[in-house]
Predict the structure of Acetyltransferase involved in cellulose biosynthesis, CelD/BcsL family.
Amino acid sequence: MGAGTTEITVVTDPAVFQSLQAEWDELWNEANGLHFQAFTVCWLCWTQVAQPRGTQLRCIVYRENGKLLLVWPLVIHRRLFWNVLDPLTPGTIEHTSMLVAQGPHMSRAIASAWETASKRCGADIFMVPYVDVGTPLHEHASRHPRIMATSGDVSMKAVLPRFEDWDTFCASLGMLEKKRPGARHRRLSREGVLVARKLEPEESDSFDRWVAWILASKREWASSRGKASSWLVGSAYHNYLMALLNSTDEQSKAHLFIITLDAVPIASSIVGMGKACVTDLIGAFDKRYAKFEPGLLVREVSMKRAFDLGLDVDFGVGTERFKAYWSRKNITQNESFEIAATPLGALAFHVKRLIRAAKTWRGARAPAAAPAIPLDAKPAAPTGRPPLP
């Protein structure tokens, strides 16, 4: 069947972007959309994070015979002399994908959206992170003539059974860190009054305190490992999470899980709802209680809820052991692309490489630092050899 009348546009006006909500929601439901593909989530990414940072909207919209069949929200910002195009996110780096309905139109819609992003958004540099290998989007990205850099990663997803009860499912998993599900709860219960549950909407007064606790714990963890994450600094990501937790969109809002011991916070996690899948957003635990593995316990609580709701769980990118355990090593290869969309964009990568090479050259030529001599060191015994020149 032919395409009929096709239309592809790049939405740059936030008011027009917002007007898409009803059609977008319908498409998201039809396509079994992921959490970060929902209109509400994308709108909050824009209003809470991207717009305040001064980026400009570039949302690609594809229609056939007037019906919305694909959306791909992107943003563009200026970096020195170059315009850089990125997927719309809350500041964290997420999977890159298009929200597109299944059907005979799918391949031409994706091809049209890719060409539009590459050529009509005014970008010199196009960043396309974490694309699932083997998808149509990956095929288009990997064929671009000016790929300047790539990197590989893996992501994991738990496809939970619909025909077992929770205990049977857990028994089939074996052990994680020498413990089965339930063992950590029993151990911590012996240490005091243990609470492990999801916070309910009527407890929204507690959301701010818990979000602040998670982000503070994350900053401490990042600092201890010498990692810098811009999204952990400032209020934008905090505001975004709060808006997600307080959202009235039940299908895509976020949920907060907590662990307390004698009313003291020791672990928490936030997940985002999708049509058929829950997405991990962020979590943290108090390292003083590390021996009790509270981070793994809060994971059990959120996994149990997803299981009860009949939803799968997307753990995102990473090779952590708990992801392999709960997903039964259901691994997807991902590839990230840095693309020069214009010759000017290619120049940016060449300049970057020259700067890196110059730093390496200077480092190789720099004289080695003389070892420090302690103040109480004794003079070296004479060797009878002349000093070296």
Summary: Residues 372-389 have pLDDT under 50 and may be disordered. The first strand starts at residue 6 and ends at 11. Residues 6-153+334-353 form a domain with the Aminopeptidase fold (CATH 3.40.630.30).
